[in-house]
Amino acid sequence: MSLLCVPVLLGVICVVWLFAVKLADFDKIHSLLSPDLTVSLADQLRRRALANVRLKNAFQINSTFVEGDVAGHSAFVRNAIQLISPRKTPLCRLAEVAKQTAEMYIEDAIPFDTAVRRTVMRVILVGMLSDFVDESTISAGDIDLVTRGINELWTLSKSSVYRPDLLTAINSCLRRWLPTYANPLEIIIPTYETMWRVVAIAVALAHDNRHALSVFTRLLQQPTHEQYREVNDGDRYSADNFMQEILRLYPPTRRISRVVPVSNVPIFGILFPQLFTRNFMIAADVEALQRDSVWGNSRGEFDPVRHQPQRCTEQQSNTLLAFGTGKLACVAKNWAPQVAAIIAAAFLEQVGQERDLVVEAGKTIGGREGWEGWSVRKNPERLPVPVGE
């Protein structure tokens, strides 16, 4: 716990404490993210917005993730549901764009995370936002600027350091790509920022795993909801099992935070909230919960088979909160893993021992950062043999 601010109000020195509390207990996490009816939707939105104020400042956005407006939240949810609907964005369309993009952007001597970020960003732009995007303005160089810039701004925001110059450069590209959006980052951040990291981990874990490669090959051949969940003859698990295990072991949002006001003197807390209210920054430790002992001694190991219905218990399933829970749970929680799997499958189609390119693995699996040593390079087994040898 830490004292973060000591403001002076009404000529009286009053201490407003902002305590940091981390939760790993299921019941407490559920109460935080899905509170009872005494906590209105407006209050839940405000709690989330206060926890995300650093992102509002870093990216100069006013989306539902950083604002407490109920009407704005409802509009965002409606638009998101429409955008990811099968009629608007069919999986077969995304698969075609993903294959085309992977062929375009995956090349020799490119950092692995750069290749993934390029691929995911273009799939989102051309596959999801095709009605709004000017495809002719998209280049790999601009994608690199935008994706690296988003990474840097996100990381700097954790220490309240801001880069207006970098934000201007990012927005210049985005507004050229999406000229009808007033603030394109408000749609790009929720669709891209989590997706690319899930795709990167999927490729990193599957590129040298013959069981996984078989599963992803089938999915790319038949990109449907049914195939995503199907365990075919000879396969040990489905694409869904594989993606759920990624989300369990490597949740893209490791902690989900809310700022909750608490008064030790309820009556005075109502009358003088600035004087008698303490704000608690409470973080649901999703990563710890999803590695709870309920998953057994192998909880730290990657094992997609554990998510098959006959093996996964209700108690285990209840701990899977990578997309949150309650009224503010991610509206794309069922859709996003399928799309990530399809993009990963398209990437994997371009690399491997039977291909001209391979993934060179680093020492550890990364996240937003930490991909040092990972790259895409030419397959040494398929290099032409010099004449005379």
Automatic annotation (TrEMBL):
Molecular function per GO: heme binding; iron ion binding; monooxygenase activity; oxidoreductase activity, acting on paired donors, with incorporation or reduction of molecular oxygen
Name of the molecule in the record: Cytochrome P450
Source organism (scientific name): Fomitopsis schrenkii
